[in-house]
Amino acid sequence: MKRSSCSLFLVTAVTLALILAGCAPHAPKSYPPTHPATQRPYTVNGKTYYPITSARGYWERGRASWYGRQFHGRKTANGEVFDMYAMTAAHKTLPMNTMLLVRNLDNGRQTVVRVNDRGPFIRGRIVDLSYKAAGELDMVRSGIATIEIIALGEAPGPVPAGGGRPSRLVHQDFNRGDYFVQVGSYLNQGSAERIARRLMDKGADVVIQPYITSGYTYYRVQVYAGKVLQTAQSFERQLLRDGFPGAFLFSR
What we know:
Elements: E1 9-10, H1 13-21, E2 42-44, E3 47-49, E4 59-67, E5 88-90, E6 98-104, E7 110-117, E8 125-130, H2 131-136, E9 145-154, E10 176-186, H3 189-200, E11 206-213, E12 216-228, H4 229-241, E13 248-251
Parallel strand pairs: 1-11, 4-8, 5-7
Antiparallel strand pairs: 2-3, 4-9, 5-8, 6-7, 6-9, 10-12, 10-13, 11-12
């Protein structure tokens, strides 16, 4: 990592926006009452997940699975009724209604889905597709496929029949942005500061971002990863090798 003279600083989410965007609103004193429940941290099987606030620039590669009849008609994480014949997907941290381009790297097929659920909670899988979406990717029989997902924007509602894209879909430049890697989130501020100093000693530009929810303050340790997606992905892999198994890449 490139050596940096950046010093450790502690900012609120709004103050961080001030630094990055040049605006100056006051920091909120409590958890916003209008904050969607699906954006709050949640715990499954002893592991806590922290949904990100924006999917802009998001890209991920891994394994996909699908779910269908067993869950057909049940409620999804955002309160909708799961329809196995709709073009939807479950993801652990992306905002609800994020539109994803999903490419099956095993056969080259691709389709577009809308995130309306949380999961999959099986190690090594990054997205759970509806039966319909799995059929579009020709992975129903295999059950599992190697895929990549790219966030296209946010949809106002369900995907039209046949997987068409809604008119309000906003496209992004996936290869450039302000990329960060979150290496951990801690209830103890001192623990977050120790991790941050450890990273700074290696030359990283580090931000500790407090996140308030349900009366608790979590201290998120985030490392700047640059403006080029490929470079940021390499940096994320390096942090995973360096002992941060929960590290994940995101873009502001």
